[in-house]
């Protein structure tokens, strides 16, 4: 029987919500990329009332950055709707943000499937999905839903994980432990700039600009990195494909590969940021 990937399970995301501590929300990779996204997508001279959607918001890396950026602007008022299918992510976001007093804006959270957004057509000026859409069972459904709720002329911003160094070590560990390349369902989606552009154009977006963004991994030992990342749904999905009697070997091989990578250069994560228009 085919088992459902962990990346598609709400329970898996609920489970990891507690791993996103305060540290992650200040210095984590997604926080740094969200900062970059906000600066790249919202012009410094923006004004008027703007409506923003964060689809698959997790504990709030993007809303935190949006609030920081927009609350300094005198001629802007804003609303943020933040949604996620995992109720525990939303609880975490509410604890972190919804009680925050924001002088010129407000934020509302929703437990919602990002592929079936429950907002009227053409509601938002900006729609974002940071490292979220890539985990939806259907990328097209997610992008179509975001396209529907975005105003004509509005801006979309998404970020994805590139298939490279750190992530690749887990797939190579799988190959060497199991004896063949990963042949299960696609886990790392939209992992090249070309794929991102193609998917966005296919779903009605234009004028797409992409960039690859390199973030150093936090200063932890390789073993600590392995044991924290292996809890994340993406890596649980890979581990789920390893036969039980090969699990220890898989762990050993991935850790060895991460050590080798670290010897060659600092461990980094590569992500792709894409911004487009409707
Ligand atoms: C890697 S986290 C990213 C969270 C946040 N955007 C960030 O950058 O820190 C992926 C998020 O996508 C959410 N997610 C996955 N599939 C989803 C779906 N079908 N609908 C809504 N949210 C989903 C997960 O619950 C999780 O919070």
UniProtKB/TrEMBL annotation:
GO molecular function terms noted in the UniProt entry: methyltransferase activity
Recite the UniProt keywords alphabetically: Methyltransferase, Transferase
For this protein, the record's Pfam families field holds: Methyltransf_25
Q: Does the keyword Transmembrane apply?
A: no
| Matches recorded under Gene3D superfamilies | Vaccinia Virus protein VP39
Q: Does the keyword Transcription apply?
A: no
Residue stretches making up the Methyltransferase domain: 52-154
Superkingdom to which the source organism belongs: Eukaryota
Entry's Gene Ontology BP terms: methylation
State what protein this is by name.
Putative SAM dependent methyltransferase
Q: Please give the organism.
A: Tieghemostelium lacteum
Q: What is the lineage of its organism?
A: Eukaryota, Amoebozoa, Evosea, Eumycetozoa, Dictyostelia
């Amino acid at each position: 029987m085919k088992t459902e990937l962990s990346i598609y399970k709400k329970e898996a995301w609920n489970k990891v919500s507690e791993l996103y501590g305060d540290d992650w929300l200040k210095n984590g990779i997604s926080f740094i990329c969200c900062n970059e996204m906000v600066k790249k997508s919202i012009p410094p001279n923006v004004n008027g009332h703007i409506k923003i959607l964060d689809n698959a918001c997790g504990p709030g890396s993007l809303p935190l950055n949006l609030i920081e950026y927009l609350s300094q602007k005198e001629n802007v008022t804003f609303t943020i709707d933040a949604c996620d299918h995992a109720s525990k992510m939303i609880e975490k976001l509410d604890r972190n943000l919804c009680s925050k007093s924001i002088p010129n804006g407000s934020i509302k959270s929703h437990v919602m499937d990002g592929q079936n957004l429950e907002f009227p057509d053409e509601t938002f000026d900006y729609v974002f999905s940071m490292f979220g859409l890539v985990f939806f069972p259907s990328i097209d459904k997610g992008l179509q839903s975001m396209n529907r709720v975005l105003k004509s002329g509005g801006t979309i911003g998404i970020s994805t994980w590139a298939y490279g160094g750190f992530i690749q070590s887990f797939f190579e560990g799988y190959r060497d432990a199991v004896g063949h390349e990963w042949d299960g369902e696609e886990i790392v989606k939209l992992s090249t700039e070309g794929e991102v552009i193609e998917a966005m154009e296919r779903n009605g977006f234009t004028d797409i600009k992409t960039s690859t963004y390199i973030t150093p991994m936090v200063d932890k030992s390789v073993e600590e990195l392995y044991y924290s990342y292996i809890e994340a749904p993406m890596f649980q999905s890979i581990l789920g494909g390893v036969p039980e009697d090969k699990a220890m070997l898989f762990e050993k091989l991935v850790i060895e590969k991460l050590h080798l990578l670290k010897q060659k250069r600092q461990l980094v994560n590569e992500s792709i940021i894409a911004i487009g228009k409707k």
